[in-house]
Amino acid sequence: MSSKPKIPKGTRDFSSEVLYKRNYLRMILQKGFESFAFEPIETPSFERLSTLTGKYGEEGDRLIFKILNSGDKLKKANINDFQKNNLKGFSNSLSEKALRYDLTVPFARYVASNQNELTFPFRRFQIQNVWRADRPQHGRFQEFCQCDADIVGDRSLWQEVEMISLYDKVFSDLKLEDVTVKINHRKILEGIVKLIGNENKLTDFTVAIDKIDKIGLKGVEDELIAKGFTNDSIDIIKPILNLKGDVNNVLSELDLLFKNIPVGLKGLEELRFILTKLKIVKLKSVNISFDLTLARGLNYYTGMIVEVEGPSKVKMGSIGGGGRYDELTSSFGMRGVSGIGISFGFDRIYLILDELGLFPSNINRKTDILFLNLGTTGSDIIFSKINKLRSKGLVCEFYPLKVKINKQLNYANKKDISHVVFLGENEIENKKFTLKNMTSGEQEQHPIDNMLRVLEKLNKI
Question: Which of 328, 356, 384 corresponds to the end of one domain?
Answer without folding.
Answer: 356
